[in-house]
Structure formats: C-alpha cells, structure tokens
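Reading a protein record of the kind used here takes only a little practice. Each token is a code from a learned vocabulary of local backbone shapes. With that in mind, consider the following protein and its fold in token form:
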Amino acid sequence: MDRSESTALSPEAALDRIAHILERHGEPSYRSRAFRTAAARVRELGIAELGGHVAAGTLRGIPGIGPVTAQVIAEAYCGEIPAYLSKLETADDRRIDADAQALRVHLRGDCHTHSDWSDGGSPIEEMALTARALGHDYIVLTDHSPRLTVAHGLTAERLIQQLEVVRALNGQLAPFRILTGIEVDILEDGALDQDPALLAQLDIVVASVHSKLRMPSTSMTPRMIAAIHDPNMDILGHCTGRIVVGRGRPESEFDADRVFAACRERGVAVEVNSRPERLDPPRRLLRQAIGAGCRLAIDTDAHAPGQLEWQINGCERAVECGADPAMVVNTLSADALLAWAASG
C-alpha cells in the first residue's frame, strides 16, 4: 500500500504506543526504551528517508533499530497495524469495577509523577502530554530530593532550573498545567530533605520515607509525625514503604492511629499509591485512614508515560475501602488543589 493511503498509525506513533503499553504492563524499562529509541530515530530520519530504508530492507542497519522495531516500522509504514502492537492491544482483558471507573473519571490530575530529571525515564513534556491525552487537567511533577542520590535527586540548584523549564512548558501546554512539586525524603529526625524556603515556593510537596525503613515504631512514629507537622508538607507518600512483588519488602512499623490523626489535624492527604509493586497503604490501613477522616491523594508515582494509567489501581482499592470522591484531593481542579494546599 502507498504510504499516503494508510489510515493506520504512523511508524513513530506505533512504536510509542507499544512503549506505552509495555510501561502500563510494568515491563522492564529496557523493553519500552528500545521502542522509544526507535521512535526517536524514525522522527530524525523523516518519511522520505524512512521509505527508502523500508524499500531497501536496511532498517536494521540504523543505530537504535533492532529486528522487532524494524518489523513494526515496516508494517506501520505500509499501512498495516503492526502484529506486535495488535498482540499487546488484545492481551489486556482486565475487568474494571464500575465504581472504580467512576472514581477515576472524577480525578482531574495526578499528584505524584517523575521525569528524567531524577529516576524517571521520560522528559517532563512527554509525561505532561500523555497525562493530557488521558484526560487530566494537570499533573504534579515530583522528582526526588537530593538525599536520594541513587535516584539522581534534585539539588536546590537543579530544582530551581526545573521550575524555569516547567514555567516555559506551561506557556506551551495551557490550559493543561504542570504543577511544581517534589517527592522529598523524610529524614531520620523528621525533617524534610530540601531548603524550606524553596519547598514553600512549590505547589505540592509529597513527603516519603525512603531510608531506615525498618526502624522501630517508637522511632518511626515521631519521625513521620514531625514531617506531617512541617508547614510545607501536603501529601504523605507510600506510607509503609512496602514492596509486594518479587522478594518484597515488609511494611514499616508505626502507630497508624497517631500518624493518621496528625494527617487529619494538619490537613495532610494520605497517598493511595497505585504502583503495582507498592499498592500502599495496605487495605487495613487505608480503611483506617478513611475512618480517621483523612483526605486521600490517588497517585501513580509514575516513572514513565504508560504508568500514568495505573491510577485505576488506586481507585479500585479506594472504592473497596469506602472512599468517597469528596475526600480525594485530586478530584479538585488545579486552582482548588492549590487553595487546599495553601490552607493546610
């Protein structure tokens, strides 16, 4: 088929779509990265040069294009739906609870996302464009703070640079908004791992424990409560730190009554983390947080564009545990979310 007659996805769109699905399925990042790299090569080539390679069968000689991606490119160029993409599209037959889907429709944004400025795999703009395509009005960009060096956490200087980048992108993407934020480490004494004056400039601050996760409850509880009482904190991220896949990681121990009471009193939302390997908090603690009157934030903690679809995981758990949309802060508009954070 002549390329001009094709109604299928373009080669680069097919490659990006495959990467997105792989990310949504939680596949290892090197797999999705291969397709995104190939998509970038296709964009660099342009349609005329690409057609020459397809006709000559020389796609595999292009750096960044392997046998699978070459096949996808050739099929898409010829107007076909690539077989690999078709297989992925039909593999996901998950049935989603209607109430969970209704809650997902209420969500206006995602308050916990990462980019390639820390340990995410994609640029800020790509994360934002994907969120917009999923129907969001905003995302909060929450790359890591400096102490988490393994995640390339942001120093104060790099965070200031990022704020300038976000400001420029918001000018291009309006009315969609990238809200400024950070996932800041809760240090052992309960302090937040970033300059307080800089934290005060951010729209939303997610604070999480990433170190010394096995400290006794008698130490972890005051550590978490001290952070919750920091005036810059808005959301308590993945509160138990557990991992539920592979070798796993046990829950941190803390006095949930005291921690959730502090969240309620201070107006700090408890995150419902939607990552499949976290699903944090566990159902019993999520029910306890809801019973205590805490606000919730249903977030993906996405490190790649396809992971932005994981929000439905949190919606299912929230509905199962008795959450009402009115208690979920990211059902608010961007302006209302900022007003809520400021009121805290």
